[in-house]
Amino acid sequence: MRFCSACGSPVGAEPQASQAAQPDLSAPAALVAQSVQAVPPAATVPPAQAVPSAPSDQYAPAAQSPSSGRKKTLVIAIVAVIAIVAGLVAWNFLAHTNDETPARNETMSSQGKTAKSKTSEQSKTCTTTPDASLSGVSSSGSTLIATVDFSADACDSNAWKGKDVKISIKDSDNEVIASAVYDFASKPIQFKNGETTLKMAFTTNQYWRAVSRIETGSTSMVVQKGASPNGKPATDVDGARGGANIADSDMERYAQLALSWQVSNDKSAISSLHDVPTTQLFSRKYGMEVDGKTQHYRDIYKQYLELHAKWPNAVLAWAADYDYYTRYGHEADYYVLLSGERFDSVSDARSWCSANAFGPNDCMAVQMK
Q1: What CA–CA distances, in Å, run from 303 to 60, 162, 207, 218, 279?
Q2: How far apart are CA 97 and CA 104, in angstroms?
Q3: Distance (Å, rounded) from C-alpha 347 to C-alpha 343?
Q4: Whole-angstrom distance, CA of residue 250 vs CA of residue 257
Q5: 229: left (phi over 0), alpha (psi -120 to 50) or beta
Q6: Is 236:214 a contact under the CB 8 Å cutoff?
Q7: Helices 248-265, 297-310: crossing angle, 10 deg rounding
Q8: 8 Å CB contact between 204 and 143
């Protein structure tokens, strides 16, 4: 036993020590005293009658001291506290993790939606260059308004944002009769089921055929990306998109071809004016000075378009083709624009020039023979 069953005090001595400490009651008092003196003070034990004798084989190992027991109890308590704290920390971590999971999932879902939204937005922009066809032409003053049908099956119902796009109209002989550079990056073409229709504006620097002479059914169109605009785009006209000029060299070439075409195709109309007084609106020659400006083919054709827009009967002639201009042996290598108006007399024709505010060097009465 480690503790006394009577008083509860710990038993710290070995059995032999306990037996040695018991005095022999049959011995004399001196021997008893001597025997008691032989026991070291540190081995003091409770009175013999309080500790029952026990066989040596039933004796437990030496008991721990009170301080050792208290230490063990303290260690156990500390371990228990640590276990409880660890359990609380683990529980709190798991609970916090579970609380964060919906928020994290919501954040990831939001990020996924944002990514999908960006992808969807990108997918709404078509990259396929559309085809184009001319479905109609009209005019606003001297500006050509072309109604253009665009088609691109790959675009479906998405937008096309082409930048610096040259759109050209060609006639049945594959000659360019209109061309300008447009920017669809800031104002995209919006398709619906792969098709859409827009109105495109061409200024007198950008088309080379009188509006009334354009046959839409025999034209073709070319849409070309990566063109170089020549100056700023023209303003929109009556809802039609304005574009920038093409290169000067191209404008010059197309204007020269247009002048030749116009002269050739106006001969029949001019022949009907023989012996009929009419008016001449200008005479122009490449390289001549007019109001301080050197004339180029594009300048001559531009003026033809502007005047033709006001007087649709106007016709263009190459002066050298008519005796009226060569009969006195003068050089006649210049273009002449006739109003095509018919008058009863030369006097009436002159009055018409004055009534329309033409100067004497710009308008004159003529009678072709």
Answers
A1: 131, 32, 12, 26, 16
A2: 10
A3: 9
A4: 11
A5: beta
A6: no
A7: 50
A8: yes
Element (H, E) at 195: strand 195-202
CA distance 321 to 329: 13
Tokens of residue 24, six digits: 């022999």
For 192, residues 6+ apart whose C-beta sits below 8 A from its C-beta are 157
Residue type, 159: A
- The domains of the chain are located at 1-63, 66-123, 131-246, 253-367
Residue 323, phi-psi category: left (phi > 0), alpha (psi -120 to 50), beta (remainder)? alpha
- DSSP symbols for 140-185: ETTEEEEEEEEE-GGGTT-EE--SSEEEEEE-TTS-EEEEEEE--S
Smallest CA-to-CA distance from 246 within 202, 181, 200, 297 is with 181
Query: Cβ distance 189 to 196 under 8 Å?
Result: yes
Is this structure's pTM higher than 0.85? no
CA-CA distances (angstroms) from residue 148 to 140, 156, 227, 240? 16, 18, 19, 10
Question: What are the tokens at 284?
Answer: 């122009």
Q: Per-residue confidence of the chain (369 residues) as pLDDT tens digits? A: 677 777 777 766 544 444 444 444 444 444 334 444 444 444 444 444 444 444 444 444 444 555 556 666 776 777 777 878 777 766 666 655 555 555 455 555 555 555 444 444 444 779 899 999 999 999 999 999 999 999 999 999 999 999 999 999 999 999 999 999 999 998 999 999 999 999 999 999 999 999 999 999 999 999 999 999 999 999 999 999 999 999 999 999 999 999 999 999 999 999 999 999 999 999 999 999 998 999 999 999 999 999 999 999 999 999 999 999 998 888 899 999 999 999 999 999 999 999 999 887 889 999 987
Rounded to an integer, what distance in angstroms lies between the CA atom of residue 322 and that of residue 74? 131
Contacts of 290 (CB under 8 A, 6+ apart): 284
